[in-house]
Design goal:
mainly alpha; 60% helix
Length: 55
């Protein structure tokens, strides 16, 4: 299963991966655009979860 990230860098990479970051060995760190796309998608995921829970 998915464990909560223990470091800030891990959390940033998780959000970036939602935004399309591949995270290969030679890839540079994720940029602001991928982080924004990942954050936006994550917000929609949270909204969908909240709607299914009835809150």
């Amino acid at each position: 299963g998915l464990k909560p990230p223990s470091l800030l860098g891990e959390a940033v990479r998780l959000v970036a991966k939602i935004g399309g970051y591949l995270g290969r060995n030679n890839d540079p760190p994720p940029g602001h655009q991928l982080l924004w796309q990942g954050y936006t998608e994550f917000r929609f995921m949270c909204l969908g979860f909240a709607l299914t829970e009835g809150t």
